[in-house]
Amino acid sequence: MTTLDTLKKSDRATIVDVTGDDGIATRLMEMGLIDGEEIQLVGFAPLGDPIEFEVRGYRISLRAAEARRVVIQK
Amino acid sequence: MTAPATTPSRTLTVALIGNPNTGKSTLFNALAGMRSRIGNFPGVTVEKKVGRVEWDGNQIDLVDLPGTYSLAPRSLDEMVSVDVLLGRQSDISRPDAVVCIVDASNLERNLYLVSQVLDIGLPVVLVLNMHDVAQSRGVTIDAAALSQKLGIPVVVSEAHRRQGLDDIRRAIVETAERTERRPDSLFPALFNEECNALAGALEASGCDGVPTYLLERMLLDVHGYVESQFEDRTSNFDLEKHLTEARGRLREAGCRVPAVEAKVRYQWAREVLQDVVIRPKERPATGSDRIDRLLTHRVGGLAFFSALMAVVFMAIYAWAEPFMGGIEAEQEWVASLVTGQMSPGPFRSLLVDGVIAGVGGVIIFLPQIVLLFLFIALLEDCGYMARAAFLMDRLMTKLGLSGKSFVPLMSSFACAIPGVMATRVIENRRDRMVTILVAPLMSCSARLPVYVLLIALFVPAEEPVKRGLVLFAMYALGILVAIPVAWLLKKTFFKGETPPFVMELPSYKWPSPRIVLVRVYDRAQAFVTRAGTLIFATTVVVWAAAYFPGDHSQADRMQAEIEQIESSDKVDDQKRLDQLQRESNVLKGELIELSALGRLGHAIEPAVKPLGWDWRIGVGAIASFPAREVIIATLGTIYSLGGDVDEESKGLRGALASSKWPDGRPVYTTPVALSLMVFFALCAQCAATLMVIKRETNSWRWPIFTFVYMTALAYVAALLTYQVGRLIV
Fold first, then answer.
1. Which of B203, B183, B179 is nearest to B192 (CA)?
2. Distance between CA B222 and CA B225 in Å, rounded?
3. pLDDT confidence of B585, banded at 50, 70, 90?
4. Are B503 and A49 in contact (CB < 8 Å)?
5. Which of B258, B499, B505 lies closest to A52 in CB terms?
6. Domain chopping of chain B, boundaries
7. Is the ipTM of this complex over 0.90?
8. Phi/psi of residue B651, nearest 5 degrees
9. What's the fold here for domain B12-176?
10. Which end of chain B has fewer beta carbons closer than 10 Å to its terminal beta carbon, N or C?
């Protein structure tokens, strides 16, 4: 068990949980990051943050601080 | 349909909602045509677009709601859509139907919002847009099966090709006749029981008839907007405590808030799409993915971005120039036409220096606005704008902002007006407000003539490097000041939790010329009609202050004589003409000194003296508040050179260089020139920017705030510059 920000380029993982109950957690879940869903890291922005992912067949950008809220299983 | 087409049988209100990047605005424009009214919802910064059209004898008011992924409001701005759909928005009647537009290539996530809209209970038409994109990715959708499963009409459309519009219109009119029906709750029984309990508790404290959707929101959105709204409305009832306990009970029963909502809605979406959508097991690598790899690349991506921004900047900085020159020439032509037809007098002065200058002062900004929005619309429509925010986010977080603030702030270096208007891409209100409030600190192109004139005064032409350095320092000053100002604003007026930067990176596509042109037209029209009138009014007011009081009869007589000699082509009168011109300029200089503006300049001399300025510079600075570039012409008038001078003019430079205090010391020393430049760099001397801020923030509070903080900042910085400079030089 680790969090989404620890993935490397092209790594895939399965989402286990999104922590917290604030606006960020809600937005992550609204965008489809919920347990059981598979997610892949596509790449990093030139300065290392934010990070591009693919989930549910679309591309999404998350800041590392937001990715840290997503618990995953590699 | 027996009713004649001229008298609509009924009026229907139809709301249009959907995720961002689904082609919602395109569909709105296609359905409503160009006759939509653009304004703001009262009390918020959310744009309100209403189009009135007639179909089959029905009058339809089509309301465009902001693009959103979810109807879980966390702010007043986000509440607007929920209020419109629930019929709680005072200026819009409760919708008879909702058109929900979804991206066919990304149905699952789009159905999340659909599920919330259905829960509100209004009749819904689902529009499957971008069907062509879905097909090209090997996704097949059985629209009939989807319609049957959802129990609502589903229309396939390609809005950018204007396909499927008639089907959508027909579906809307038919659907609006249906009765409202809330579908069965997706939530577990326990959750619904908590909803009922909450309704009972609210009723007991004086809030009855709260829509079920709002009750659900109170339970689901921890510290959400609905909760805070009802907290203010209820008396002797601790809503927060009730909700915390209810959420605790739900959690114990394995129904964790807020996760439960995402879980049940995505579960529902998956069930709905079962056997309706067939998509390939592996998402095939598309051309879009390959482009994305290049454009977000560490080196290549940044290089492309820098080149692109250089082009955009050049466009609004340099390419707009000929058009602006053309508008100025046109303005002068009209002014000379009027001058030729009328004899000198207050009415001619009002027309030429007030009205024509005022109209010109509005139109002059159009080339920059049109060019910038041409680029923004192109970049947004092809999907690059989100990548630009992605690339720049890390840099902008240092300012407490997000990547979405980059393009508006960069554009402000050419002109703050399109820059402020471009902040619409920032959906978070606090980030957007801070961006708007610091945008005028960026050194815009109107400051350049002032810098050029003053730098020429104290840096000799033999030192071009030094000249360049001073100019660079002036541009850097704005950025350096913007950093602490943004930081302070974030700590005071706009504090709160860091907004999520969870952003969809849409697939690349070819921009549609039609959408791009409509967007550019919208922005230009909004500027002229909403801000233009105010800019015009300000120009006329300042004209009056510079004209009255004062006896202009002698100056008018001289002017009439000059014009007579000029038109008579008598070469031998050249001497007389020169003399008259000189005398007339001196007289005009005296008149401006006597005017309200001139008196104000004298009155504030004690205040500007610590900056090293005399009353003439004071008048120039005050007269420049509507538009900073007029200082050149004002100084020309004050120094009796006539108003037709520019920053390269030898006469003006000479007059400034030889300008003296009563005791004989020169006025324009290096510290004075620097203090004046610093003042112009930081001061809010642009009525047009303030009026655009008024329009964009939908309040007088923020333009007034911007004016006060920038003027105070400019004063203090100019004071420091002069006082410190005096000690060094």
1. B183
2. 9
3. confident
4. no
5. B505
6. 12-176, 189-254, 551-592
7. yes
8. -60, -45
9. Rossmann fold (3.40.50)
10. N
